[in-house]
Amino acid sequence: MYVNGQPAGHTPLVLSGRGPAVLQVGVEMPGYSPWVVSTRVEPRSLTLLYASLSPMQASLTVESDPPGAAVRVNGREVGTTPIAGAEIAMGRHQLVLSMADHEDWRGEFDAAPGAQIAQRIGLRPLPAHLSLSASIGNGTASIDGQPAGQLPVLVDVEPGDRRVRIEAQGYRPWETLVHLSPNESHSLEADLQRPWPVNEEPVSPLAVVIENQALARPQSGLNRADVVYEALVEGGITRFLALYATQDAEVVGPVRSARHYFVYWANEYNAPLVNIGWSPQAGAAINATGIRSIDETRGSQGFWRTRDRAAPHNAYISTAGARSGLGDQVQAGSFGGLAYKTNQSPYRGTAVDTASVTYGGWNYVVEWKYESGSDEWIRSMERAPHVDAASGEPIRASNVLMQWVDSWPIPGDTEGRLEFDQVGRGRIIALVDGVAVEGVWSKPSLEDPTQYQDLEGNPIRLNAGPTWIQVLPLDGTLLLQNGGGNIASTGVGAEG
After folding, report:
1. Domain span holding position 387
2. CB within 8 Å of 65: residues ≥ 6 apart
3. Which of 248, 352, 423, 447 has its CA 20 to 30 A from that of 308?
4. pTM for this prediction
5. 50 in a domain, yes or no?
6. CATH number at residue 96
């Protein structure tokens, strides 16, 4: 209680004094509105004052994630989040937040007079509804590496980015990344590609030379290739030779010029070569092998240039466009010396979860990490994920072969181009089923396909799926890891 602005004590209170006088009397209490009155006090008189205090309103602040939820208090809508400073009477109240495609949130709170009440509420999105099927009618599905059942199947999943993988025995795995909104109904039908060839089943592969300079990354179409070679060219830069047999790619590139060892590898599969220009040695190899070259610099059609990159890092082609350029000259080929499994039995050997490749003295590192759920190897390059330009998804392989091949600068070549000793024998390590398999590669002549055998002389049989062949110089190193343990594996020279 205050008298003329000065503290006088607490109610109930009796004050005495001389009059006459006019006093300003105030009563204050936390959570209640102040009470103030002016009264005249006469001598030898008793003045009674009764203060009726009114409770102050509580203040309510409500935030939600995501914002924009409708807020109701005791069934009355008070606005949408975020709400700040809504006046609430004292007492217990029911609070409800509602938002489309999210579960309602319900709760209670107590409001004391003048209280500052803050509610921060995370709304749970309704699941998305995903219908999965395959063009062949059957198969199995997984979402984010977790089994989702036999096809066709309808599953409820958490909204967001979800990786869907569909497999069927004898068919190439199908995988995509889909973004799902809360309560969205979405259908995916996997167009599973034809069964993988069994040994001698004829195919018609197409080989494309793809650049790997920094300005060419990320590349397009490597994720659709059946076989990819990676080998050094001049200047310590690697280049890819990608072979397409079981599926097409709408965009492949950037396409660059050929080297003679790419020509001889493509010839192992009887695959026409897609390139833009060639080295003198590659031109001689094309003439010697009779391989068909689809070359922009020599008038071949189907290439295009993009504007988002500077030349020469902007040339692309589609596999369909390249094949149309061949016309009636499409030729039967094979998978060369690669042998595939006839059953699902996994390899046994030294378990590996990470393989790091260093290309000799060049400052270039490739890493493969094993993903046991999919039985695939995920590729990184220069310590960053190697992704496809269109999808943003990482490059994956079912098998990775490390092949050590002797190489040296070609004498008198002013560009520093390399010679590869492709004929003979040498060391390989195959990464299959999460293990490392030691073996030997052999190639009797430039006309023969390269054979890949284990140390007992048996063909190394690969899983159906993409195969990458890392062609390393003799001083290239391979570091194998498993659970933090290291096995250093250094290249051993050709065996004659």
Report:
1. 198-496
2. 120, 121, 122, 123
3. 248
4. 0.67
5. no
6. 2.60.40.1120
